[in-house]
Every structure is written in structure tokens, then in C-alpha cells.
Amino acid sequence: MNKISSNQFVVGDFVKVTKIVGDQIHKLKTVIILPCSLHDLAQAQKNHFYNQVDIYLTDGMPLVWYLSIKNKKPIDRIYGPNLMKFILKKNKNKNPISVFLGANQNTLSRLRKIIPKKPGNSFLLLKKSDTAKKEQQILDQIIKVQPNILWIGIGSPKQVELAARLKPKLKNTTIFCVGAAFDFIGGIKKQAPRWIQRSGLEWLFRLITEPQRLSGRYLVIIPKYILSIIIKKIFRKI
Length: 238
What we know:
Elements (H helix, E strand, L loop, with lengths): L13 H11 L6 E6 L1 H7 L10 E4 L2 H11 L8 H11 L7 E5 L2 H10 L7 E4 L6 H14 L3 E5 L4 H9 L7 E4 L3 H5 L8 H6 L2 H8 L1 H27 L1
Parallel strand pairs: 1-2, 1-6, 3-4, 3-5, 5-6
Helix pairs in contact: 2-11, 10-11
């Protein structure tokens, strides 16, 4: 059974963490960076692809609270959409080759209009209905390009699986798994107000706005994961 340990997280204030993350782009090494949520922690228990993630960030507020207590100091939430906007802005006048891999054509079209055009940048579509052969063709395109930055906005655990499969084939690529960040930045989906985000109730906001897609995640997978942790702690004390 896989388990993500707290020492795999890069934590601190937003400026410190984004500097560490940003520095990875210029190193001669391919790394996978994942803004992590409770859903990812639950998925990691049964999905070996999470072993390939190099840097975990505190995307979910429960993780922020837990690691703040564990580290005995306040830490910031490294929210996927905010991280993506920061990195894009930081590299605005530089020329890293970036690939954006998403699951929705409308979302990618919106991103094309928002993100400054640069030589070598590409926007690739990978739909859930695509065959394994089509999926591999798209991954082969990315391998051929060898981008400096790869943004995968498909959602976990699929985005982690794709990143892990690509990692050994890419020589110097920083792979960001940013889930719904494409939709939020592109204005396809509405973000929760800041006070809801800070309160830790963003999950409820998202559940209300996307009940069909997210009910399994928030009403089954995450509660089941939390319950398993509680049960394990109880039995340790017996």
C-alpha cells in the first residue's frame, strides 16, 4: 500500500514555495509536482503512480491545517490555479517551451486566448473516450517536443498516471499536475469565494456546483479515507 509522507511536502509561505518550485524549471532533471488534496492522499493508497511524484504541495486546506500543526508554524495553501498563474506570469518574458494537456476542447480554446503566444507552445486534447492507441499518440507528441514545462489539467488520479508514464521519457521537463486549474483560469468553472476557500468548505461549494461529477469523491472516497485513518489510530491505542 502506498502512502504519502509529510516529509514529501514542500511547505512554507507562498513566496518561498513558489521560488523552490520555479527553480526546478531550470534544472537538468524531470520532476513531477502535484498540488495535493485529500482525494490524492486517498488515491495514493491504491495507485503506484503516485510514487513517481517528486514534490507535493499543500493544495487542500485540511493538509494546510495538519502540516501547520506538525511543523509548529503557519504555512500557506498552494492552490493549483494560483500556482499556475504565478509560474506563467514569472515566465512571461522568458522562452520555456510549454505544453498544456487538457480534457476539454472548450477549456483549451479559452486558455489559448489568455496565455501569451510563444514559439513551441502547444495545446493538446486528451478526452476520456480516447482509445489507448490515441492516448499513446498524444504522449508521443509530448515526448517528441521535450517541453520545459508540461501542464496536465485532467484531474487525479489520471493526470498523475500520465505524468508518471512520461517522466522517464522526458529529459528536462517540470510536470505540473494541476487538475481543474485549466477550467478555473479559463473561466469555464466558477471558483469558490475566498472566504469559502479559507474556511475549508470549498469542497462543499464544488459539490453543489458539480454534484454528478464530484459526489463520489466528496461523499464516498474522501470520507472512507478519513474513516480508515481514524480506525487505524484507534487500533494502535488498543
